[in-house]
Amino acid sequence: xxxxxxILLLYPVFCFSQQYKTEELLKQVYKNETxxxxxxxxxxxxxxxxxxxxxxxxxxxxxxxxxxQKVNIEKKFFYNYKKLxxxxxxxxxxxxxxxxxxxxxxxxxxxTVYTSTLHRSKATASLLLGEKYVYEAKPFLNELKPGTxxxxxxxxxxxxxxxxxxxxxxxxxxxxxxxENRAMAQRRVNLAASFLVxxxxxxxxxxxxAHGYMNHLLRKRLKNTxxxxxxxxxNENLGGSLLVKIE
Length: 247
Prior knowledge:
By secondary structure, the protein is α/β, with parallel strands linked by helices. Helix content is 42%, strand content 15%.
């Protein structure tokens, strides 16, 4: 009985130790492969699973999340409610800044890239990755839509508006019919994550070009379900993440 109790107490420690070793190995392989990149390669790359010295890589899956290029839109310092809503509407339709075409290292086997239905996501994907892929737009990958709190006569810089709207959104606010509250957004994130995991199980690798906050929540959701974050190049435009899972 005492031995069984010791085993039960030490098992979580053993599992954590093994997961840590696996994570460190994968990150080292990723770092080593970085030296193979040239000017024509994108800053993120997929892992070459043939280089990974693990007992079982048959269930090796990878998901890469990339944020869209910067939108070419005029910005003002102060906004009221109406001007901010107009800015957000224009942001969904304006063109992006030019993007140099890049190759994603070790992306062989991928024939479809998933984007949102918003122009900045689709344009970034096609300009960045070229004509070798089929592009599939999915509405559940669209950026989250917290909406803007209608406070008459209030003028604020855009970052302060974003913080204010996020606070109201976290407490369940849904200012407009076209916006979504936190619970609605989380359901959409869960749907998107499930879809990407399914595609990764089918194809091994998944490439996504979406949005900053959506990618952040997808990354968080995947990590909570056992995916390992191998690399994160930041939340800025064209930043992204690579997550992997071995089953």
